[in-house]
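cache lookup: miss for this entity combination. No prior model stored, computing from scratch. Input as submitted by user K.M.:
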Amino acid sequence: VNVLVTGGMGVNGSAVVRRLLRDGHRPIVFDRHSDPSLIPAAMRADVVMYEGDVTNLEGLEQLLRSERIEVIAHLAALVGPNAEKDPYSAVCINVLGTANLLEAARRAEVRRVVLSSTKAVWGPITGQYAHPSFRPVEESHPIGILPDLKIYCSTKIACEAVGQRYAEAYGIEFAALRFSAIFTVGRGKGKGPAGIHSRILEEAMAGVPVRVAAGGDQADDLIYGDDLAQAMIKACVAPRLNHCLYNIGTGRLLTLRQFGAAVSKILPGADVEVGPGLDYIGRPVYCLMDISRARTDLGFEPEYSIETAVRDYAGLFSELYPC
Amino acid sequence: VNVLVTGGMGVNGSAVVRRLLRDGHRPIVFDRHSDPSLIPAAMRADVVMYEGDVTNLEGLEQLLRSERIEVIAHLAALVGPNAEKDPYSAVCINVLGTANLLEAARRAEVRRVVLSSTKAVWGPITGQYAHPSFRPVEESHPIGILPDLKIYCSTKIACEAVGQRYAEAYGIEFAALRFSAIFTVGRGKGKGPAGIHSRILEEAMAGVPVRVAAGGDQADDLIYGDDLAQAMIKACVAPRLNHCLYNIGTGRLLTLRQFGAAVSKILPGADVEVGPGLDYIGRPVYCLMDISRARTDLGFEPEYSIETAVRDYAGLFSELYPC
């Protein structure tokens, strides 16, 4: 299958590209920059790279036609603090960009578009869905309401809806994958509180004693990048999509303390201490995902335990950033 | 106050413009077309008209500066079937257009932007909020989820969120007014099932016997155009906005049969019969709005009963379309 990965040089997109390459596919990457720092050097020759902007409809259409793209894994987006401090660009890149991609896909007769979305569309997770009861959150969970929505999740809500509407109006196959908390290479430095797992591991790898003052009792559903990629690729190639929304997580809870213990176990000599308490991010974003729909429809099943994830992350990180 | 009314030649925007003119203001209108057919001829000379497109950021900024705009009533949008059959344009005009307007407002130091929004953001209204119990719907009501959202309401959800984020990030004052079902001149022919009230009245005025087969028992919260305009103007001039969302309806229920009876009472010789049953639109959209927030914060209070609304509509319609 000819798969276009938008945002394929980014944190999540590169995980998809790495897995596509490992599986013997020839991913075509579309990104604003061609900095391949999240792709191992040995793999780079096999990546077809297009530099471009999703706000350019004509450019997208031309690329889809010239590369005979059949499926698009759409991960290009302005995320995190960059989106919050520049809402105008967030709307242009995320919402208009997704509409452009869908419109270009319609014109070029691309069969399917799979959108990278997020649990953040639910806004704050509270009550029975939060600590300590963690009732699993299904795809039908209400989405968040103002004034509690960040610009990033607002744009993702719009993207999901535009995609669903394109599917309905034009017969393009569409699904949005709502990822739970993500643990993957590239989410470390400068990526805000949600990158805490990356920072713990990377500091431990650097031989630094890691002291996290609080938050060790907070559980969350943490998916490893390569499992995220598995889900994205399965959604790209599944014979058919019965739904337009899929939760993608592990369906399991992991506390920050358990994460620290896994790092200590995998890295000989690591010195990690995580203090007690909840809410290491500072907002009620933690949840347990019900992933049964993705299991049934996409054949998705997380392949990594937290220990194998930490081991794989450490190996990839060393490969990307040899000291 | 220098008020810019985007979409001011449209169905809802023209109601705002008429009321601004009646109140002695000098509305500045921005619309894609300068067809003034919803503005009475005697008023047209007092409207400052700019033809333009909200997808043009620079044009907007220039206009805001040259006219020293202080407040924007933003009603320009692609709505109804036009939005559903062209989701790409709906995203460009509604979402990007609103982001452009906010960005231009930020650059030109406009104080406040008031967005025209809709109860449709809630998706289907069911359970205790629907017939027959009609529990009043507050602003905190969950918004709709896929796959039940139309492209129009999806774009409005995004617009609300972008506006709220602009307010937070840049200090622009922002509120979205979520209107209930609307009864106003211009919503008749070709405007789909939600225009049923207009069609009943206009056909009765034309001397045609009106036979609505079913739906007479369905109640809804129906706001008259001039009350919508009252709310919009109050939101534009209120000393301060304590919230970013306001429900704007009547806080009262009216059945389609009661509407028909009002038409019969006001128009001598009208022949209107409305059959029994529910759901004249064909989707569960009916609700009773809790408008206490708008009452408290904006001093909004509906001025029209259904009979005075029908009388005013008939007068305006005759003025606009003399036979």
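stored under new cache key. The radius of gyration of chain A is 19 Å.
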